[in-house]
UniProtKB/TrEMBL annotation, chain A:
This is Biotin and thiamin synthesis associated. It comes from Thermodesulfatator indicus (strain DSM 15286 / JCM 11887 / CIR29812). GO terms for biological process: sulfur compound biosynthetic process; water-soluble vitamin biosynthetic process. GO terms for molecular function: 4 iron, 4 sulfur cluster binding; catalytic activity; metal ion binding. Residues 99-333 form the Radical SAM core domain. It comes from the Bacteria. It holds the Pfam family BATS. SUPFAM superfamilies: Radical SAM enzymes. Gene3D superfamilies: Aldolase class I (3.20.20.70). Keywords: 4Fe-4S, Coiled coil, Iron, Iron-sulfur, Metal-binding, S-adenosyl-L-methionine. Its cofactor is [2Fe-2S] cluster; [4Fe-4S] cluster. Residues 124-151 form a coiled coil.
Amino acid sequence: MLTKEEKAWREVRLNQILKWEENCPYEDFIDDEKIWSIIEAKKEPERQEILEIIEKAKENAYTGAMLAPEEVAALANTKDPDLWEAIFEAATWIKNTVYGSRIVLFSPLYISSPCVNNCAYCGFRQSNEAVKKKTLTMEELEDEIRVLTGMGQKRLIVVYGEHPVSDVKFMCETIEKIYSLKFGKGEIRRVNVNAPPLFKEEYEEIKTVGIGTYQVFQETYHHETYRRMHPKGTLKGEYKWRLFALHRALEADIDDVAIGVLLGLYDWRFELLGLLYHAYSLEKEFGVGTHTISYPRLEPAVNTPITTKSSYLVSDEDFKKIVAIIRLMCPYTGSILTAREPASLRQEVLKKCGVSQMDAGTRIAVGGYAEMEKEHIPEKQQFMIQDTRSLDEFILDLCREGYLPSFCTACYREGRTGDNFMPLAKHATVKNFCIANGILTFKEYLLDYASPEVKELGEKVIIPEYLKWLEDNIPRAAERVKELLKREEKGERDCHL
Amino acid sequence: MRKDKKFLKMLAEEACREFGLKRVYFAEVLGKRRHFLAGAGEVTFEPPQSAKLSGDLVVFWEGELKNKDVFLKFLRKGQMK
C-alpha cells in the first residue's frame, strides 16, 4: 500500500503528465488497425519476396536505412525453415559488417525498487508485498560498485523505480557517485540509465552528469494491452506520455536514446512493427536513430501470475526469429540480449541473430552484487534471471567461439555521440573503432581480472586475431593500438582511440 | 563561449581548411561524457587529439597538426567573432 505522501507525490506528477499529454506536440505513431492490416496482408509471403528483403537488408547495412513495415511483417510471417536459415545468416552478416565480431559487455545495477506503479507483470509493482522494496544507500552503492569493478566491469545500466525516493535529484547523485569511485585500477566509465519517463527539464538535469544512453521501454505498443497492464491512475498508465519519453529526452539534447519491448504481453509480430515505427519516429523528428533495441521476455516473478500465464509468451524458436528480424529491420542499432535468457539459448542467439551487447555475472536484486554468492534472491528481484554464468565464465565462452569481448566506452568519451556516432553505425564503419577499443579493453581485463584459462586464450588467440584484422584494414590504427598495448602492459589504463 | 551548432560547424570547416586537418569537431564536457555539438570533415579512424578550449568546451581533431598553440588561438579567436 502506498503511504499518504507517496499518493500525494503520484497525484501531483500525474496531473503534470496529463497536462503535458493535452499539449503533446506529437501524433501517436502507433495505429493498431494499420499494423494488423499490414501483418494480415503479408500472411503468406512468397519465397522470392523474402530473398529480396534479405538482400535489401544487407544493402541497408551500408546506408543505415530501415526496412519498411510490410517487409518486416513478411519476415515475421515466414515459415520456410530454409528461408529462416538465410535470415539468420543475414543477421550475423549485418552485425559483423556494422560492428565486427565484438560483443560489448555490461552489467545491470538495480539502485531502487520502490515504485508507485502497479504494472501487472512486474515483481516491483506497489501492491506486491511478497517482494521487499529497497533503495541503496550511498554506502551500499559503493559496495556494489566495489564488487562490479572487482569483476572487471566498466559499463553499467542503472535501474530505478518510479518513486519519490528515486527522483531526478537522487538519480543524478547516484550516477555522480558511481563515476567518482575508483578501486585500484577498477572504475565505471559509462553509466547508461533505465528509468521512468521524465519531463524535458528533468532530462536536462540528468544530462549534466554525463550519462551514456537513456532507455525507456514501451513494454507493449498495443494500446488495449498497454491499458490492461498499466492501471489507470498510475503514472505508467499514460501511454502517450511513455511513447514520447525519448522524444522529450532528445528535445533536452540527450542524444543517445534506446527503445525496447517486453515480449510476452502481446503478439510479437505487432511489437516488432511497434519498435520499427518508434525508430522511424525518432529518425523523422530528430534525425537520430535508436542507439539500442532491447527485447526482454517475460520471466517468472514472485507473486506475479501473468508472467507464466500470458497467452502471448514467446517460445525459444520465435525469440530467435525476433532477434534476427530486429537486426535486419534496423541494421545500425545495438541489439541487447540479457541474462534473463538461459545460457544455452544465449549462446545460440549470439551466434545466429546479430546480437551486439550482453550482460554477464548479473545480479538483479537491489544490493545483489554485495551478496554475490547468491545467484538469486527472489524476494528482492523484479523477475528471475536464467543465465547465471560468472563474467569470467561468460568471457571464456565468448573466446571459445572466437568473439572479441569488449568493455569499450570510448565513443561517448571522445565526442562520438548522437549524430557524430550515428553515421559511423549507419555506414558500417563504427567497427573500426569497436575492434581497436575492444582489443584495448579486453587486454586490460586479461591483465587485471582474467582466469588463467581466459588469459591464455585471450593472449594467444583472440588479441592476435583481431590485431591482424586491424592491420589488414586500418594499419595506422593498428600501429597505435600496438603502442597502447605496450603501455597497458607497463601499467597504464584506459587507453583508447 | 558560443556553443550554437551552426556556428561551431562553420568554425570547424574553417579550421579544417586553414590547418589541413581531416576532421575537427567540438564537444561539451558533461562528467565523463564528451557530448558532440558540431564538426566538419571525414573520420580517419585514427586516434583523435583533443584540447580544452575554455569552460566546458573541448575541440577534437584528426590529422597532423603542426602547431597546436596556433590552432587553439585560431579557434579561440573565432569564438570571439
